[in-house]
Amino acid sequence: MKYFGGCDVGSTYTKCVILDEAGKIVSDVTIRSRINAEKSSAEALRLCCEKVAGLENPQGLSYLIGTGYGRNKVPSADENISEISCHAMGVHVTDPSIKAIIDIGGQDVKGIAIDTDGTVKNFAMNDKCAAGTGRFFEAMANAFEMSLEEFSRLSLTAKNVIPITAQCTVFAESEVITLVGEGKPMDEIAAGIQNAVAKRCFVMAKKAGATDSITLTGGCAKNLGLKKAIEQVLRIKVIDLKTDPQLMGALGAAEYARQKGLEKE
Question: What homologous superfamily does CATH list for 99-240?
Answer without folding.
Answer: ATPase, nucleotide binding domain (3.30.420.40)
